Amino acid sequence: MNKSAWTTELARIVFLTATAMFALSPPLMAQTGETPAATQSGAPTPDASSQGGWLERWMRTVDEARASQPRYVAPIVTTHVVLVEQYRYDLSRQNDANGTVTSNFGASRGLEIIPTTRLEIGISPPPYLAHQSAAPDGFGDMSFQVKYRAFSAPEGKGDYFVGVFFAGSVPTSDSSNGVGHTVLTPTFAAAKGIGPVDIQTTLAAGLPATGADVLGRTVVWNTAVDYRIQGKIWPMIELNSTSWSGGALDGKKEVFVTPGLVVGSFPVAERLHLGVGVGVQIAVSEFHRYNHRWIASVRLPF
């Protein structure tokens, strides 16, 4: 990607961050001033009974959902195994098996909201992929995710989460940067806290709605283990594996170990917080489509 493109993308990141901060802060400043961390502790909203606007009711719903589950930080790769309300923007850079280097702006992350105490809905705009090769740069596919919280308890009352998620991607790319088919991904998710250690795991099946003879079906298993330090520093390690059945990669399996670190979140303006993370996927299997994938992550919970 040339200097101009990098500058444009950086400007886009700054614009999105600033928009989230200034668009969300003014209406939320009229609230009680509670931060996500405070609401997760189970403390009630002081003037909840007197608040009747749709925004106030929505924020109370978010607070109730957070108070009903543990406060696990979002891993670098593994899907966050709790309901979250935030905007997330990731960037990655990897060495592909064919020798090229690919940068991914967005990395299929986006806006996640909690409409009810048991549901989360996430919409991720198409990421932009840039290659240091003859491969065309361009946008990838749009994706979505719905999380359902089946059972959970906050710290001190069990410290666990069990849920079922349903995700998918829609072929919005007109180039090789997308898969060209709709892929649906049902997922089972579970997590448990043991003192300062949190364990989050997801087991998912990638099921193409069309093109299964080319893409094959996948089983994706991700597990993240982190250690909480003062509730603000989260060193972690993840195991990410994908197995294929059918398609061009039939019988193949790739496995990565992903050490990472997340810091935050820190208050920015009333409910709006900021957290950042970084990690690297290191291939430990003989077969792998890429290696040394560095990932940077910016999270804006509100």
Keywords, separated by commas or semicolons:
302 residues, alpha+beta, Porin, 12-stranded antiparallel beta barrel, 15 strands, 49% strand
Per-chain topology:
Blueprint: H1 3-28, H2 36-40, H3 54-67, E1 86-96, E2 101-106, E3 111-116, E4 119-124, E5 128-131, E6 138-139, E7 142-153, E8 160-170, E9 183-194, E10 197-208, H4 212-215, E11 217-227, E12 233-245, E13 253-269, E14 272-283, E15 290-301
Antiparallel strand pairs: 1-2, 1-3, 1-15, 2-5, 3-4, 4-7, 5-6, 7-8, 8-9, 9-10, 10-11, 11-12, 12-13, 13-14, 14-15
CATH topology category name: Porin
Beta-strand share of residues: over 45%
- Gyration radius over CA: 19 Å
Tell me the overall shape. globular
Number of helices: 4
Proper CATH architecture = Beta Barrel
Helix percent reads 10-25%
Query: In sequence order, what are the helices and strands, one letter per element?
Result: HHHEEEEEEEEEEHEEEEE
Order of neighbouring strands in the sheet with most strands: 1-3-4-7-8-9-10-11-12-13-14-15
> What is the CATH domain class?
Mainly Beta
CATH superfamily: monomeric porin ompg
- Whole-Å distance between the termini? 33 Å
What number of domains? 1
Structural class, judged by helices and strands?
alpha+beta
